[in-house]
Predict the 3D structure of the following.
Amino acid sequence: MEGLFEGLPMYVLYVHHKSETQIKHKVHNLQQKAFKFVFNNFN
């Protein structure tokens, strides 16, 4: 059981990092969409 608990923090960090990256990608996509929207409307 000890090995499991040693590996747990790494797993939590990995999952946290993964979801954080996904959120960054979503924000980046939204920013691009907003930029294109503004660019198309004000040109």
